[in-house]
Amino acid sequence: MSPVPESSRLSVVRAGGAIAALSAGAAVYLARPGTVVMTSWLPGGLRASLRAALGGGLSVLPGWFRGVLPDLLWAGALGCVLALVWRGDGARARLAARSWLVAGLALALGWEVGQRFGVVPGTFDPLDLLASLVGYVAGGVLGGGLGPVLGGASRERAGVQSTISSTREEVQ
Question: What's the pTM?
């Protein structure tokens, strides 16, 4: 049996990071007092039980940060997953990746803009908009790097070894 390529293991780690970010964003909403749109579909008893299980651990964070954290995490997860899935060499692959990344950014920002104009339920907050932008770009970088998608050379195409693989070879 051949060993799993380093890039495959890294992709699994990145996908796990995106799932963790989605879960953490949901947990932040559940830990908040009151009901927000994201948790309104949960029965009150279940919402209260989940809230009690999460405890008040978020109270150490500033209120403004607790408010934008779910947007930051969810947009980051979206950017990470899209950058992870949509990659490849060649002009057609980069064009497809760019298209999906722009669509993802429009979705991440459009949700908040939709709130501003009353098209989407919720409360508009410019900090949420900024958090979504920062999260999406950071997620895209962590999901495999935006450089290859935007036309830059990937590490593999540039002939540069990753630190992880060169360290592993030194150990063997």
Answer: 0.73
Per-domain residue ranges of the chain: 6-171
What secondary structure letter does DSSP report for 160? P
Per the CB < 8 A criterion, the answer to whether 43 and 103 are in contact is: no
Tokens of 86: 């949509």
Q: 157 and 90 in contact (C-beta within 8 Å)?
A: no
State the average pLDDT over residues 148-163. Answer: 49
Instruction: State the Cα–Cα distance between residues 68 and 155, nearest whole angstrom.
Output: 33
Query: Distance (Å, rounded) from C-alpha 89 to C-alpha 149?
Result: 9
What crossing angle do the helices spanning 163-171 and 6-31 adopt, rounded to 10°?
A: 120
Residue 72 contacts residue 30 (beta carbons within 8 Å) = no
What are the structure tokens assigned to 40, written together?
Answer: 């309104």
- DSSP single-letter state for residue 135: H
